[in-house]
Design a protein that fits this description.
alpha/beta; 7-stranded parallel sheet; 3-stranded parallel sheet; 13% strand; elongated
């Protein structure tokens, strides 16, 4: 198997007998035996070296990512190679950030922090979550964690996914559901189907004062359309991801009202590496034992 750096090699140990761990991330110093690699764990949030890695590994059978998103690797994956994502590694931290952001806006924490900095004791009445209607785009690990946390405070949840199933509406029903949503949480993977899904028409259908929380991928939400709604002070938003990303320092989103921006740090908590390499270790053990792998990504992801 191949991992991107020495730290990764150390964290996945011990590996099953007979497994040789090579360290390489696509640089000029190619280790001997790389052509025999069957199991690849590339660098987290990387991807620039993907083509180089794949070209050097004709015997590759499994790609195990540490991220939930797979949009960089899915179109490059050779036939016959199983692609697995990092579902469960970042779900808790990412959901936490979405929930914190939503609660901060509902209880007007940005306003109070400004008053604190100015040493002003300003008493105002805020909203609360009880009875709010949450529409979650994405019924996977992260979306369900967001819902579970907010439901404790009396929030009512509706799920939308690319494919309808029991308890989950399909994307084709989205526009009819949006007018009833006080909170729109975007927790879907970025695909051709979801790119630009939250567009000007959909945003315009949200009720006044609704909150858009995007902790998935920036390109799912139309940036210009969201910016217009924020500048009109009609909507509020929590963005851990943006389009473009990183957000340029002169981008007008920085100055938009009713907005909390974090720099794609949802899953970047202190515990992520322990969970991530625990997953990699478990996956290589399954692979060696001939057992089914977890988090397998289908072609229709």
């Amino acid at each position: 198997m191949c991992v991107p750096d020495e730290s990764a090699r150390q964290q996945i140990e011990p590996v099953p007998d007979g497994v040789r761990v090579l360290v390489w991330n696509g640089g000029d110093d190619v280790p001997e035996g790389i052509a025999d690699t069957e199991f690849l764990q590339p660098g987290y949030m990387g991807g620039g070296e993907a083509e180089t890695l794949l070209a050097a590994m004709p015997q590759l059978r499994v790609i195990q990512l540490l991220s939930a998103g797979v949009e960089r690797w899915l179109p490059l994956k050779p036939d016959g190679v199983t692609l697995c994502n990092g579902k469960g590694v970042h779900g808790g931290g990412t959901a936490e950030l979405a929930v914190v952001g939503v609660m901060a806006l509902v209880r007007r924490l940005p306003f109070f922090l400004g008053e604190q900095a100015a040493r002003r004791w300003t008493e105002v009445t805020t909203d609360d979550l009880d009875g709010k209607r949450l529409l979650v785009l994405g019924a996977g690990d992260i979306g369900r964690r967001i819902a579970a946390a907010l439901e404790v405070f009396g929030v009512q949840t509706t799920y939308v996914a690319r494919t309808a199933r029991d308890g989950v509406h399909g994307v084709d029903e989205l526009r009819s559901l949006v007018p009833e949503a006080d909170i729109l949480a975007v927790a879907m993977p970025l695909t051709d189907q979801t790119r630009g899904l939250v567009d000007a028409e959909l945003l315009a259908a949200l009720p006044d004062g609704a909150i858009v929380a995007n902790i998935a991928r920036g390109a799912i939400v139309d940036t210009d359309a969201l910016l217009a709604e924020l500048q009109a002070e009609r909507l509020h938003a929590v963005l851990d991801v943006t389009d473009p990303e990183p957000l340029p320092e002169d981008h007008p989103l920085w100055q938009a009202p009713n907005l909390i921006i974090t720099p794609h740090v949802g899953g970047g908590t202190h515990g992520w590496e322990r969970r991530a390499y625990g997953l990699v270790r478990a996956q290589i053990e399954r692979y060696v034992a001939g057992k089914p792998l977890e988090n397998v990504v289908g072609e229709t992801y």
